[in-house]
Amino acid sequence: EVQLAESGGGLVQPGGSLRLSCAASGFTFSSSWMHWVRQVPGKGLVWVSRINTDGSSTDYADSVKGRFTFSRDNAKNTLYLQMNSLRAEDSAVYYCARATGAWSGSAGALDFWGQGTMVTVSS
Amino acid sequence: DIQMTQSPATLSASVGDRVTITCRASQNINNWLAWYQQKPGEAPKYLMYKASSLVSGVPSRFSGSRSGTEFTLTISSLQPDDFATYYCQQYETFSPTFGQGTKVEVK
Fold this sequence. Notes:
The structure holds 2 protein chains of 2 kinds.
Chain A: E1 3-7, E2 10-12, E3 18-25, E4 34-39, E5 45-51, E6 58-60, E7 68-73, E8 78-83, E9 92-100, E10 109-113, E11 117-121
Parallel strand pairs in A: 2-11
Antiparallel strand pairs in A: 1-3, 3-8, 4-5, 4-9, 5-6, 7-8, 9-10, 9-11
Chain B: E1 4-7, E2 10-13, E3 19-25, E4 33-38, E5 45-49, E6 53-54, E7 62-67, E8 70-75, E9 85-90, E10 97-98, E11 102-106
């Protein structure tokens, strides 16, 4: 059974940092492109970032480029999202998701999602 | 970026109704469109891919179609478990974009 479990969310002050983790199991993690998607409670889904299978290539939404870093450890089946210079507008539930059919030119569809971790940026 | 315009934002319906949700892409995305269902407090659930291919285990009352850059998700006979919010997502490009969502609520 595919499982994705996010952790690391919490309350942080504006300008602060936070590192999210996503532990994966039940599938060949090292063969999967992975994504982060966020959602303000009550609002829609917004793509944040993606990473290729070996972690050598990442892409980011313009809103987080230069502040967030997506990485992975295939030996530990774990994803990381390092979030720096956090702003109030980064407050959201952050989901990690597995992509199917992804390649360098296509994000793929997101076939499995974690339950999400809440990030609140507030003073 | 490719914009996805989803409508309506809210849809009031009764059990047994036929329900249609529309998603329009700002440019050609071929058939690279997925649909998701999300219930309050839960993660999105993958329903459909390549515009009209049903994910294994999803009931056959769900169907999808495409006409140019317009895509539709149809629920042929709405069931109690179907009251939720639905999102489309294009994956023509490396940066996916989602529609704004359609909440299907009880009439």
